[in-house]
Amino acid sequence: MYRVSTPNVLVVEDEDNISFLLESALGLAGMEVASVATGEAAIARIRTDRPDVVLLDIMLPDVDGYEVLRRVRNDGWSGPILFLTARDSAAERVRGLTSGGDDYITKPFALEEVVARVQVALRRSGHSDEVTLRVGELELDDEAYEVRCKGDVIHLTPTEYKLLRMLMSNAGRVVTRSQILDHVWEYDFDGESAIVETFISSLRKKVDLDEPHLIHTVRGVGYAIRPPR
User: Fold this and answer.
1) How many whole angstroms separate alpha carbon 79 and alpha carbon 50?
2) pLDDT string in tens for the chain (229-residue length)
3) 25, exposed or middle or buried, with CB in 10 Å at 0-12, 13-18, 19+?
4) Which of 4, 35, 59, 111 has the highest CB neighbour number within 10 Å of its CB?
5) How far is CA 215 from the centre of its chain?
6) At a CB cut-off of 8 Å and minimum separation 6, what does 195 contact?
7) In b/e form, how buried is each residue of 83-96, taking b as 16+ CB within 10 angstroms?
8) Closest listed residue to residue 122, CA positions, set 165, 76, 78, 79
9) How far, in Å, CA of 2 to CA of 93, rounded?
10) Are 61 and 33 in contact (CB under 8 A)?
């Protein structure tokens, strides 16, 4: 593919629905995601897997997030930790950041904001080479906010850019219409597939006119972008 390497993110969250949503959103942004539900499991996973970023709930059923952070820092792991919590007081924010956390995200949160903050943390920690996606001769450069095909710049609307980025981040995999609606337009799928089809058609006219085509329709499911064979 398409990236130099894939960032690994560990989600530490004991609420299954929140964990699932975070895994889905980060996965659709092109990251490898694992999740655990307790502090002790998080410490063990960080020691063995050395993730690139940890999303860490503070209120866990065993040890809290602050204790998890203290112990993994004592182990020598220095990767970024982004706290997730319902505690939104100024004192809690200060504690989270001064205890060694890299960011503090309060619940409820927008999934797009969490993805953006994880991407910022990755870049700060040395993953700046992760901002260019390539499929065949199509290239998306996040740093320049630019799309190129065969070296020529392609002008996309912000929504088209976001849709193309989602497809390219998941190159070789099918993304469903509901996933596209949730990630690009940020609302739940409710039978409104026409808007997705309209933007896919517009995207094809701008970046995928030549044979062999990169963007494929998987009937009854969604869309996939694949390199030419």
Assistant:
1) 8
2) 344 457 899 999 999 999 999 999 998 888 889 999 999 999 999 999 999 999 999 999 999 999 999 999 999 888 999 999 887 666 776 776 677 788 888 888 888 889 888 988 887 777 654 467 889 889 998 878 899 998 899 999 888 998 999 899 888 889 888 888 877 875 554 556 688 889 999 999 999 988 889 999 999 889 999 988 7
3) buried
4) 35
5) 21
6) 181, 185
7) bbbeeeeeebbebb
8) 79
9) 37
10) no
Specify the pTM.
0.63
